[in-house]
């Protein structure tokens, strides 16, 4: 059975109040319907056939719960107040429940917008003198024995006395000093009138014992239920005898709603929040300092992701059986990146979200870079950063959850399942949009950001400590991750961050104060705790100046603009290093890729920061020689790329390692060692450290070993020798790092938070279809079909009648209503204007589809002419 909101009676005469939600929707224009469908996209998934079906869907429990969850705190409080008002309620009654008897001016100013929001989202319908909350919302928000109202109010006097005997009701009426009546209905009405009378009610309470008033004060703001014994105390008996407390079950009493509202001075809520809490400024920095600091963070982000994937160049850690990265591997990654484990988890997840990292799909499955990583390396630095930042902004995988527990009490691991949170992208966008609304260069107090989000989307259940719900934690993670990534600098939104959101650039910076370089120190802030002005209106202040990018094209354009802004702020790659006498090389900035790759083989990274320090060691030089370089190649390379002369210690190191490199040759027997210098072989045999290799002489220049070639090679190197591996043909093997790549992989798709927001094209098509379907279902018909509108039944006529009516409509240019069954057997009602009837087909303009279509006549179940005023 349809509820009152969904029932579709015969259309009401123009100018009369709507009698159902469907009628209220029918009075809306296309702009208003578009706004509804954009806010509640689940209503057009799939597109409803008409407005009656749209109203039915808008009243379903799942859709209403979703709509209520997306209300801000004051709009939700307004809906909660309407749920405890009379049904229907008047505008003044609802205003009184929100603003109280004293009419709080802040609440009074914000109330019209809150009510308009509820109307816009089809949660409230009706005129101001007959406001109705959709039935499902009332059931969710109204007080009941199993679910107390968020307002803390209990049942009305009429509801609480529903099972009470008539004699007992008359006794209560007499105890209150009211005249007795002949029936319970009028007696309950008399009590209700007394309890809502702001003049007579104080007189009744003035006669109450002090202990009785204390009991009422404990119950007034909820919960309204209390326990009593079979023989209540005198002060409790006084309240029960006058219905100020009413029994609901043995040993349980409740404070009637009317009494509580009187004690609350008419307010439905103890505290109302008509105004969004203002963001508090923590500090203010020069915009130039913010941008350069953010650019420095962006450069570090690029270097860290590159270092991570270079570390996993030949195949990264193994994939756990349940999926994800083990705790031990995450710790190793954190040590390699020189960051804390939660930060390492963030970089790993970011590389995965950007499609640069995936599993290789082998039997012994491991993580490795994807082919997309090689393409990413070839992009300009600004574009590489924009790809990472865009992936982070849209990702539903949440690195902050790593290390926590899931619903089955299993540990959540990096790159593992269970990390998707569909609310993450929306929270990230909203946090950054709030930062965009602050004065340029200002960073917020994190608690104030969380408080703002809690106002815009109140957490479920009782109010929790600041930030311990999911949205609060997501907001805090967003602030820290945005700083790591370079979207913000010193807590303030950067220029590239604004561009990433699709917002227009801030006013030009004041260059007179100078622009800092990457890594420069910040200027002195404006002082912690500075509070922004409070805007006294309902809609949140400091909104972004432009809508956030929604379509892929808009997001791509925003990312490209962010890359263009960031590019000039990043340091240019250098083609040189500074060699020092202590066997180190200093790179004063980022190096060109070929130089960085070669230097990474020839030397070990000793420290990183604004400048990178490389150290040359015998092992690192040998690594370069193993990769096929000769001593002359290394000298030429260092000469070409050093701004300082090559120090003698480095020259000696290279020559010394090269002189000994390859003097010993190791091949496969199980393994053997050969050397033209038999004295060197004697030295190896005499060394006690070689006993584990189990060497024996086969010839004056050859030793055989029972160890495999790799173990023999490593063992001799650990003894201080510099052997070289050789092939079966006797050639020296050149060892280069093997770049292990996964097959082509796409980035993980975000898990959507409900249906996507429809674009303008889809909205226009959906509204045309709904309007046409509504016309088909509600238009008056002529003749025998006149009683079918709104019943959902298809018209039924014979083939001859159908053909005759169609031909007549072609001649007169009229519009008819038909029932049609398509090839899949789905039945629908349509309003068409026939153009031509021939060969068993009718060609007509279909108002439902807003196009010309051809229908087989044998699939038309029947036809009826529309009334003349509908033509």
UniProtKB/TrEMBL annotation:
<feature type="compositionally biased region" description="Pro residues">
    <location>
        <begin position="745"/>
        <end position="758"/>
    </location>
</feature>
<feature type="compositionally biased region" description="Low complexity">
    <location>
        <begin position="512"/>
        <end position="521"/>
    </location>
</feature>
<feature type="domain" description="WYL">
    <location>
        <begin position="801"/>
        <end position="863"/>
    </location>
</feature>
<dbReference type="InterPro" id="IPR032830">
    <property type="entry name" value="XPB/Ssl2_N"/>
</dbReference>
<feature type="compositionally biased region" description="Basic and acidic residues">
    <location>
        <begin position="1"/>
        <end position="10"/>
    </location>
</feature>
<protein>
    <submittedName>
        <fullName>Helicase-associated domain-containing protein</fullName>
    </submittedName>
</protein>
<feature type="region of interest" description="Disordered">
    <location>
        <begin position="776"/>
        <end position="797"/>
    </location>
</feature>
<dbReference type="GO" id="GO:0004386">
    <property type="term" value="F:helicase activity"/>
</dbReference>
<dbReference type="Pfam" id="PF13625">
    <property type="entry name" value="Helicase_C_3"/>
</dbReference>
<feature type="region of interest" description="Disordered">
    <location>
        <begin position="739"/>
        <end position="759"/>
    </location>
</feature>
<keyword id="KW-0378">Hydrolase</keyword>
<feature type="region of interest" description="Disordered">
    <location>
        <begin position="504"/>
        <end position="528"/>
    </location>
</feature>
<keyword id="KW-0067">ATP-binding</keyword>
<dbReference type="Pfam" id="PF13280">
    <property type="entry name" value="WYL"/>
</dbReference>
<dbReference type="InterPro" id="IPR026881">
    <property type="entry name" value="WYL_dom"/>
</dbReference>
<keyword id="KW-0547">Nucleotide-binding</keyword>
<feature type="domain" description="Helicase XPB/Ssl2 N-terminal">
    <location>
        <begin position="577"/>
        <end position="699"/>
    </location>
</feature>
<keyword id="KW-0347">Helicase</keyword>
<feature type="region of interest" description="Disordered">
    <location>
        <begin position="1"/>
        <end position="20"/>
    </location>
</feature>
């Amino acid at each position: 059975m349809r509820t009152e909101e969904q029932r579709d009676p015969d259309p009401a005469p123009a100018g009369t109040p709507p009698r159902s939600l469907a009628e209220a929707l029918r009075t809306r224009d296309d702009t208003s319907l578009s706004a509804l469908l954009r806010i509640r996209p689940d209503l057009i998934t799939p597109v409803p056939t008409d407005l009656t079906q749209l109203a039915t869907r808008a009243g379903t429990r799942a859709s209403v719960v979703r709509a209520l969850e997306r209300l801000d705190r004051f709009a939700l409080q307004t809906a909660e107040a309407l749920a405890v008002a009379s049904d229907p309620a008047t505008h003044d009654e609802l205003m009184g429940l929100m603003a109280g008897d004293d009419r709080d001016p802040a609440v009074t100013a914000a109330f019209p917008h809150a009510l308009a929001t509820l109307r816009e989202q089809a949660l409230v319908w009706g005129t101001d003198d007959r406001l109705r909350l959709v039935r499902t919302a009332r059931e969710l928000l109204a007080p009941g024995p199993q679910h107390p109202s968020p307002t803390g109010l209990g049942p009305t006097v009429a509801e609480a006395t529903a099972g009470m005997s008539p004699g007992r009701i008359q006794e209560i009426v007499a105890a209150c000093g009211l005249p007795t009546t002949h029936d319970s209905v009028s007696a309950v009405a008399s009590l209700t009138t007394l309890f809502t009378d702001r003049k007579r009610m104080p007189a009744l309470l003035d006669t109450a014992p002090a202990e009785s008033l204390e009991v009422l004060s404990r119950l007034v703001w909820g919960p309204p239920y209390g326990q009593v014994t079979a023989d209540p105390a005198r002060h409790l008996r006084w309240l029960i005898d006058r219905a100020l407390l009413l029994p609901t079950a043995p040993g349980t009493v409740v404070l009637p709603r009317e009494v509580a509202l009187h004690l609350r001075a008419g307010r439905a809520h103890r505290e109302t929040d008509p105004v969004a809490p203002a963001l508090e400024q923590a500090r203010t920095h020069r915009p130039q300092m913010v941008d350069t600091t953010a650019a420095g963070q962006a450069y570090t982000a690029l270097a860290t992701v590159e270092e991570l994937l270079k570390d996993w160049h030949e195949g990264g850690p193994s994939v756990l059986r349940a999926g994800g990265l083990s705790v031990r591997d995450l710790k190793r990654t954190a040590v390699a990146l020189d960051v804390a484990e939660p930060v390492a988890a963030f970089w790993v997840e970011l590389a995965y979200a950007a499609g640069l990292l995936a599993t290789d799909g082998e039997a012994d499955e491991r993580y490795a870079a994807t082919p997309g990583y090689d393409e990413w390396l070839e992009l300009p630095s600004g574009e590489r950063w924009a790809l990472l930042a865009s992936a982070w902004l849209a990702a539903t995988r949440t690195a902050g959850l790593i290390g926590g527990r899931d619903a089955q009490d299993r540990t959540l691991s990096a790159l593992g399942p269970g990390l998707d949170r569909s609310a993450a992208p929306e929270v990230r966008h909203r946090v950054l949009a709030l930062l965009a609304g602050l004065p340029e260069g200002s960073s917020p107090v994190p608690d104030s950001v969380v408080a703002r989000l809690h106002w815009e989307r109140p957490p479920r259940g009782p109010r929790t400590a600041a930030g311990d719900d999911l949205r609060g934690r997501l907001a805090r993670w967003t602030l820290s991750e945005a700083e790591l990534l370079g979207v913000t600098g010193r807590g303030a939104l950067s220029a590239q961050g604004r561009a990433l959101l699709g917002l227009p650039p801030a006013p030009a910076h004041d260059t007179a104060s100078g622009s800092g370089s990457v890594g420069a120190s910040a200027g002195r802030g404006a002082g912690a705790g500075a509070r922004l002005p409070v805007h006294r209106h309902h809609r949140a202040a400091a909104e972004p100046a432009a809508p956030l990018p929604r379509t892929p094209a808009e997001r791509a354009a925003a990312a490209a603009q962010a890359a263009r802004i960031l590019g000039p702020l990043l340091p240019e790659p250098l083609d040189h290093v500074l060699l020092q006498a202590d066997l180190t090389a200093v790179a004063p900035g980022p190096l060109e890729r070929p130089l960085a790759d070669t230097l990474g083989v020839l030397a070990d990274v000793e420290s990183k920061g604004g400048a990178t320090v490389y150290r040359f060691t015998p092992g690192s030089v040998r690594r370069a020689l193993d990769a096929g370089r000769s001593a002359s190649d290394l000298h030429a390379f260092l000469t070409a790329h050093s701004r300082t002369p090559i120090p003698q210690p480095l020259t000696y190191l290279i020559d010394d390692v090269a002189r000994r490199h390859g003097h010993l040759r190791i091949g496969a027997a199980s393994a053997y060692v050969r050397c033209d210098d038999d004295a060197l072989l004697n030295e190896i045999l005499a060394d006690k450290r070689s006993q584990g290799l189990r060497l024996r002489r086969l010839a004056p220049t050859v030793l055989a070993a029972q160890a495999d070639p790799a173990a023999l090679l490593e063992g001799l190197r650990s003894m201080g020798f510099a052997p070289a591996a050789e092939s079966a043909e006797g050639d020296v093997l050149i060892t280069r790092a093997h770049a292990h790549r996964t097959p082509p992989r796409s980035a993980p798709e975000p898990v959507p938070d409900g249906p996507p927001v429809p674009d303008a094209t889809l909205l226009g098509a959906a509204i045309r279809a709904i309007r046409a379907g509504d016309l088909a279902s509600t238009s008056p018909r002529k003749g025998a079909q006149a009683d079918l509108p709104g019943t959902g039944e298809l018209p039924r006529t014979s083939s001859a009648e159908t053909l005759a009516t169609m031909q007549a409509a072609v001649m007169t240019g009229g519009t008819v209503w038909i029932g049609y069954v398509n090839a899949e057997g789905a039945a629908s009602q349509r309003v068409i204007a026939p153009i031509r009837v021939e060969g068993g087909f009718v060609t007509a303009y279909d108002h439902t589809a807003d196009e010309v279509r051809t229908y087989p006549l044998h699939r038309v179940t029947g036809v009826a002419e529309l009334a003349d005023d509908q033509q």
